[in-house]
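To assess whether ligand presence alters the predicted conformation, the chain was also submitted together with zinc ion. Input:
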Amino acid sequence: MTKLGMKRTEPGKNIKRTGGVKSPKIKQLDALWARIIKLRAGNICEMCGQTSKSRGMQAAHYMGRVFHSTRWELDNGACLCTSCHIVDIDNDSKLKEDFFRKRIGSDRQDELRTIAYKRFKPDKEKVLVQLKEKLRGLENATN
Ligand SMILES: [Zn+2]
């Protein structure tokens, strides 16, 4: 009992939270996806050309993470420094559109948008296998 007679929360007996908490599988896929995006770019910001030594790199989404159907598509991502990601691209939709058009072309942009809005839940196990394969390929190529 505490001074005020209130029950202390026992350690390890945390209230199970729902909503807004990422499942371990989603966390794993996000981490893998981000690693591939950054590795593919050689850890260089694909917008301003800065390297990770001077700025922290992030994997930015074209169609946002809220869309699970495109969340782990590799065409849907770019390696950006925090400044280009947060300051520029996330606050300027035209810049974002132009940037990704140059990278993947407007047809693929349309395609990603269509897939995103379908809002289906991808087979996470399948995505995991594909991403792991892609990462292995990239690691072999850079070693
Ligand atoms: Zn940058």
